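Lecture notes, unit on protein representations.

Consider one protein chain, 250 amino acids long.
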Amino acid sequence: MTVSFDLTGQTAVVTGARRGIGFAMALALAEAGADIVAASSSQEADGGEIGRRVRDLGRAFEGHAVDFSDRAAVEAFGARVGGADILVNNAGTIRRAPAAEHPLEWWDEVLQVNLSSQFVLSQAVAAGMLERGHGRIIFTASLLTFQGGINVPGYAAAKSGVAGLVHALSNEWASRGVTVNGIAPGYIATDNTEALRDDPDRSAAILERIPAGRWGRADDLGGATVFLASPAAAYVTGAILPVDGGWLAR
């Protein structure tokens, strides 16, 4: 048997692809041969930098501006991309405040963007996958899928919920040719972790615990994304793969 990571001829929908982890995931999938449909709240129609990079690789690209806090907008987007072979649910947001003072509107926003919208989009895109008998769905989980974090109750709850979705959807769809998995990034140097990196004490404490001895880079997620999207991972489903420099093993 030949192990293949080739995605030529496939279409991948990547949410939150305008920057950071989503950008790196979309680029890695394009490098493996996939055409890209990118969606973010402020995604340019031509894709901006990610669109240029994907087209430079000779792949097709579509950009869509989608407000993931608006269920109707997510449903409409899902109806447009129902023919996709790969879905990467990466769009997310984070709000930081102590739990005792955490505004309820922040809680609602984070749960809608990071969890509810991802189920809505998965349901829409999976309809076509299930009909064709093949598809790959990948969620961006988090270290807080396994841990509680500090000052981010909504984010921790949503990312724990992502694990539940990975397991539940895999149980229902794996026998019909659709695998469902998650990737749990460690502490990656992106906008979401800027507040932590700007806090000398928190940054030092985090770095001390990472066996790899460095903050992660967005492109550290590319290999795991391609693997889970590819024929090589045909028998991998219901899994959450940490890409964390060894944090969870510490």
